[in-house]
Structure formats: structure tokens, C-alpha cells
Backbone:
């Protein structure tokens, strides 16, 4: 096992026909670490996460996961790569035509687990996010915070080593946002690594984890809280 | 982190069964659009199958009429009645003919008088203008081209004046049936193409309708086969429904055709009943429908599934 679960080596990225979105981005995410990406809108935070999830490929440099260069992964192996991750989104990306239980079960269904295993693991995940009594509910009937907890349960249910979260608290009020972060910390204490893109500087300060500040596709000074507060709402 | 997979095959089959049933249920809950798609495939199958069936029936009918076809050999006046009878006996022993009947000049005259009112005209002629003849009835299974060759052989004989082979119409019929068969094949190919394209479009709409689901599936790393599966089963069911529609259409068409065909056959004094589609034809229609459905869905999926991405 490598010391770092995710490594960006001098990574550059450019969308088709556009200018460089990332420029020489270089950082490591240690196994078991919880790392934040901050920066103004358009800085390239989501792009970093898309690179890690292989929704995009770097146009320069290397992205390693578990020490392996994922730039060389064939298109056909991308799903297998994604199954090693958990992903959490600002807009939850839940399926509203099925129950909370079925949403959380999806990652297990695609892995071909038995009904018994699926039931056991989904309930454990529901328990972990505090939604045990809502498994039959439609996600539509849940609050934003509860929906995000369904998203988190879906991300952790297959026990990935790394979770990528893109503004997971962006649609939540400050109290719910803190709840979600506390939930992340609990999984983090259990050994799951996190890479979280967020605007919520005050939350990061409060939690005291390492943060990388992006500005125009580059890393800027180590702890730019004061500067970022000027551009963040 | 490794996930245990006991009984993998059983679970895989179970998963297929689940998706298969779910795809059926989805269409069952949307009967109008399912029926429309099934009709497109159903007509695609029913038209060529029906045309083929018609050709088969006509062939059958033509085979029945074979028995009434005859070859008439007119003998030269120089040939004696004994020679004529001998030739008739000789031809009658041949495999190609079921019967050979000699008609003498006198007999021909008598028959002619009996059939017509032209007796006085013949009397005025003074002599009998009618030739002796041999009427040959070919064996029912005798092929038309073989009969043509036999007729040539008979024409070459010195004692034969003329050979009349009344099978021109049957050759024309054979040729027409061959054209109809080819037409059915071309029709089948053109319609199959149209059905596959129509189905591809239906699948595109299905894919659009389930866009969110596909995006989530891709994000959580579902294998492409897993994402494709519901759409392929949907295509399969569209195809099978189309096969059922085609079957019903064939039976309805047969039923509607039965009476007029019976009347037509009666006019030709033939004994013939319309044959409906047999089990093999029906199985073929269903299998062809399922295959068309799968191919159409596969093309639709190949064209449209890749385009669905987040944002
Ligand atoms: N699909 C795309 N095609 C072209 N350019 C894109 C695309 N997606 C993002 N960009 C550009 O890349 C830059 C970085 O975008 P990105 O989404 O990574 O920013 P971000 O830091 O996540 O911003 P936000 O805080 O608003 O989510 C932006 O300038 C954006 O316009
Ligand atoms: Mg973003």
C-alpha cells in the first residue's frame, strides 16, 4: 500500500477548445486524510475532482491513485476505477423514482451482491447516516440535509477507500452543513480518505483540516483564508 | 474491500430475469406506445410472411392443377390405327405418364359431332378432317421442363404431326411465383431496415426518459453491460410483441382470404384449401421479431447511450 491514496503531479487540464483550467497543480492526499479544495468560482475545484473520477483526463502531468497512473486506464476500465471511489454531489444526484433504500443499494446491485448482503449493508449505511426509519421513503419527501445523507450513505455503502465530494454542503443551511461535515469526520476516523471541494471556508477553519486553495487553476499560498473571504460570499 | 460472490452464475441469471421482467412491466404500463412500436415491427414481419404464405399456397394450388394438365399428340393420317394404339401403349408404360388414351379418327369425329352442331358442315366436306390423337396425362409429380423435353422427343417422330403441350400457363405461373418470392425477400429486407431504425428511435426516447438514472449509474461505476441491459430487454420485448401482432395479422388475413379463395378454386374445379401459417412459420416470425428488436435496440444503445454524461 502506498502512503498516498491520490497524487497530482504537475497536472494541467484544458477543456476542448478552451484555455488551461489547471496549471501545474501538484498535491498529495495521504491515506486516511481529509483534504479540502477551496477557491473562487471557476478556480478549477470541480475539475480536480473530475480528473480523479476520470470524467476528464489530464492534458499534462500525472494523476496517481494508490500509486497507479490513472491517465493510462482504458475507457473500458473507467467504471471499475469509479467503483473504487465514492462520489458525493452538491445536487445529491439521487433517483427520485425509487426509495431511499433502492438509491443506497445501487452500488451493491451493480456489483452483483445477494439480496441478503444488500439488505444488511444498506441498513448499516442508513444507520450510520441516521436515516434508518426512512428507508421506504421517496427521496423527494426528505429535506435537503436528509437527501445529502442518502447521497453519503450511497457513497460509503460499498466501502470505498476514497470519497470525492463536490460542494456537498452547497445546498444546505449552516447547521446541516456542519452535521454533514461531522458525518464525514466519523467516516474519516474509520479510515476513509476524503477530497472535498467547498466554498465553506468557515467550516474548514472550524474543523481544522488541511486545505488547498486554488486560484485561476493554480495553487496559491498555503492558508489563504483572509484573501478568500474577500471573494467568497 | 473485496466483495464475496458465492453463486455468481445464479445471481447473474437472477439479475437478468429481474431486468427482463422489469422491462416487460415498463412496456405493460405504457400500452399505447408499446403497441405502436409493436405494430411497426409486426407489419414488418407480417407483410413478407403473408406474401410468402400466399406464394406457398399458390404453388400448392398449381401442384393440384398439374393433374389436369395434358399433352395431346396428333398423329399423321398415314399412321394406321394399330400403329397408333401401339404408340399409345408404349407411352402409357413410361413413368412420366399416368395415362395414355388413343382416340381414332372415327372416334374423334363422333366426339366432335356429339359436342357441336357442326355435323352438317363435316358432311359437306365429304371426308373426315380430324386426325387420330393420343391424350397423355402426365404423372402428377412430373416436372414441367421434363414434359417439355418429352414433347420435343415426340415431335421428332415421323408418325407425329403435332404435339400440344398446354403448360405454358403453368410455366408463367412458376415464373410469377418466383418473382413474388423475390419481392417478398426484398420487402422483408426493406421493412426490416425501417423497423430497426424506428426501434432505434424508440430506444433513444427510452434512454432520454431515463437520463438521470443513466448518469447516476455511470457515476457510481456501473459496467456498460449493466446500463445497456434494460434497453436491450426492452428491444427484445418490443420485438416479441411485434411477432405476436404479426401472428394475429396473419390469421386475420387468412380468415378474410379463405372464402374468396374457395370460390376461385371452385371455378377451376380444383380441390384445394388455404393453408394457414404452420408452427414453424409462427416460431420463425416470433424469433425474427425478437432478433429485430434486439438489433434495433443494440444500434439505438450504441448510438445514444455514450452521449449521456453528467451536465
Ligand atoms: N465542460 C466544460 N467545458 C469548458 N470549460 C469548462 C467546462 N467545465 C468547466 N469549465 C471551465 O473550467 C474552469 C473551472 O471550472 P470548475 O467547474 O472546475 O470550477 P469550480 O472551481 O468548481 O467552480 P465552482 O466553485 O463555481 O463550482 C471554469 O473557468 C469553467 O468555465
Ligand atoms: Mg464546481
Residues:
Amino acid at each position: 500500500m502506498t502512503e498516498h491514496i491520490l497524487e497530482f503531479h504537475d497536472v494541467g487540464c484544458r477543456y476542448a477548445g478552451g484555455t488551461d483550467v489547471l496549471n501545474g497543480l501538484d498535491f498529495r492526499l495521504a491515506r486516511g486524510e481529509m483534504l479540502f479544495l477551496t477557491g473562487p468560482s471557476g478556480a478549477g475545484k470541480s475539475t480536480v475532482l473530475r480528473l480523479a473520477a476520470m470524467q476528464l483526463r489530464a492534458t499534462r502531468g500525472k494523476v496517481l491513485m494508490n500509486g497507479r497512473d490513472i491517465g493510462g486506464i482504458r475507457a473500458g476500465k473507467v467504471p471499475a476505477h469509479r467503483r473504487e471511489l465514492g462520489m458525493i454531489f452538491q445536487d445529491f444526484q439521487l433517483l427520485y423514482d425509487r426509495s431511499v433504500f433502492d438509491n443506497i443499494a445501487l452500488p451493491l446491485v451493480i456489483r452483483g451482491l445477494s439480496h441478503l448482503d444488500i439488505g444488511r449493508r444498506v441498513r448499516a449505511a442508513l444507520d450510520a447516516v441516521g436515516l434508518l426509519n426512512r428507508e421506504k421513503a421517496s427521496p423527494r419527501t426528505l429535506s435537503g440535509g436528509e437527501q445529502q445523507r442518502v447521497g453519503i450513505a450511497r457513497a460509503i455503502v460499498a466501502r470505498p477507500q476514497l470519497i470525492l465530494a463536490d460542494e456537498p454542503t452547497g445546498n444546505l443551511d449552516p447547521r446541516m452543513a456542519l452535521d454533514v461535515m461531522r458525518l464525514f469526520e466519523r467516516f474519516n476516523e474509520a479510515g476513509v480518505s476524503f477530497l472535498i471541494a467547498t466554498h465553506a471556508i468557515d467550516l474548514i477553519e472550524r474543523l481544522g483540516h488541511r486545505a488547498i486553495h486554488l486560484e485561476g487553476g493554480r495553487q496559491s499560498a498555503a492558508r489563504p483564508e483572509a484573501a478568500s473571504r474577500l471573494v467568497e460570499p | 474491500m473485496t466483495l464475496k460472490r458465492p453463486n455468481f452464475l445464479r445471481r447473474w441469471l437472477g439479475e437478468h430475469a429481474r431486468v427482463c421482467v422489469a422491462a416487460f412491466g415498463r412496456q405493460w404500463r405504457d400500452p399505447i406506445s408499446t403497441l405502436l412500436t409493436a405494430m411497426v415491427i409486426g407489419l414488418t414481419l407480417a407483410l413478407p410472411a403473408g406474401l410468402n404464405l400466399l406464394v406457398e399456397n399458390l404453388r400448392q394450388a398449381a401442384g393440384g392443377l398439374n393433374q389436369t394438365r395434358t399433352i395431346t399428340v396428333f398423329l399423321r393420317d398415314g399412321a394406321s390405327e394399330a400403329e397408333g394404339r401401339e404408340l399409345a401403349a408404349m407411352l402409357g408404360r413410361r413413368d412420366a405418364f399416368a395415362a395414355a388414351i388413343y382416340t381414332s379418327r372415327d372416334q374423334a369425329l363422333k366426339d366432335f359431332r356429339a359436342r357441336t352442331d357442326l355435323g352438317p358442315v363435316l358432311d359437306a366436306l365429304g371426308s373426315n378432317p380430324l386426325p387420330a390423337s393420343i391424350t397423355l396425362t402426365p404423372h402428377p409429380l412430373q416436372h414441367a421442363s421434363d414434359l417439355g423435353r418429352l414433347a420435343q422427343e415426340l415431335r421428332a417422330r415421323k408418325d407425329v404431326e403435332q404435339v400440344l403441350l398446354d403448360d405454358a400457363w403453368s410455366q408463367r405461373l412458376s415464373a410469377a411465383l418466383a418473382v413474388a418470392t423475390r419481392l417478398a425477400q426484398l420487402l422483408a429486407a426493406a421493412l426490416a431496415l425501417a423497423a430497426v431504425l424506428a426501434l432505434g428511435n424508440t430506444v433513444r426516447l427510452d434512454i432520454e426518459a431515463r437520463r438521470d438514472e443513466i448518469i447516476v449509474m455511470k457515476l457510481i461505476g456501473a459496467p456498460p453491460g449493466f446500463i445497456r441491459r434494460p434497453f436491450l430487454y426492452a428491444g427484445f420485448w418490443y420485438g416479441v410483441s411485434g411477432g405476436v401482432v404479426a401472428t394475429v395479422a396473419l390469421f386475420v388475413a387468412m380468415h378474410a382470404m379463405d372464402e374468396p379463395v374457395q370460390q376461385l378454386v371452385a371455378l377451376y374445379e380444383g380441390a384445394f384449401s388455404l393453408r394457414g401459417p404452420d408452427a414453424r412459420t409462427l416460431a420463425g416470425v416470433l424469433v425474427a421479431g425478437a432478433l429485430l428488436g434486439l438489433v434495433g435496440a443494440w444500434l439505438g444503445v450504441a448510438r445514444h447511450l455514450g452521449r449521456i454524461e453528467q451536465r
Summary: Chain A touches chain B at residues 53, 55, 76, 78-85, 87, 93-97, 106-107, 110-114, 117, 154, 158-161 (CB under 8 Å). The helical segments of chain A are 45-52, 78-82, 100-109, 115-128, 144-156, 174-189, 201-207, 225-231.
